[in-house]
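Researcher: Let's do a round of design. I'm pasting the structure tokens now; please hold your answer until I've finished.
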């Protein structure tokens, strides 16, 4: 009975490698697309991947400017769409097959409170 060694077939090796690749890519995707304040601040070019998770986890409406800075860090200096009563964060290249423009998170304030936020393209 001990002499019966099961041979591994080539398709089983390929299937195993394929499953490992799928798991690895899934973990990588989740990591890149999960919002955290630390990643948001450290990787401004990758914010475009995190912004949907940010919106799922946090409602910005009603937050003060200080709370927004605590959550997202300081806004982007010399940003497109910058006005007196808003904060603007660079998100990265737009999410299209051909990225020509950039995406920006624009947060509007009234009396130091967020009243609206949306994504704009330049």
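Researcher: That's everything. Go ahead.
Model: Designed sequence:
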């Amino acid at each position: 009975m001990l002499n019966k060694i099961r041979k591994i077939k080539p398709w089983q090796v390929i299937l195993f490698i394929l499953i490992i690749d799928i798991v690895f890519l899934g973990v990588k995707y989740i990591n890149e697309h999960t919002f955290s304040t630390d990643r948001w601040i450290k990787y401004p070019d990758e914010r475009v991947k995190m912004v949907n998770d940010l919106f799922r986890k946090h409602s910005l409406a009603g937050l003060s400017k200080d709370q927004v800075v605590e959550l997202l860090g300081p806004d982007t200096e010399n940003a497109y769409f910058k006005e007196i009563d808003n904060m603007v964060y660079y998100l990265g290249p737009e999410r299209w097959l051909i990225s020509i423009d950039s995406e920006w998170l624009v947060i509007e304030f009234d009396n130091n409170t967020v009243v609206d936020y949306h994504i704009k393209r330049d």
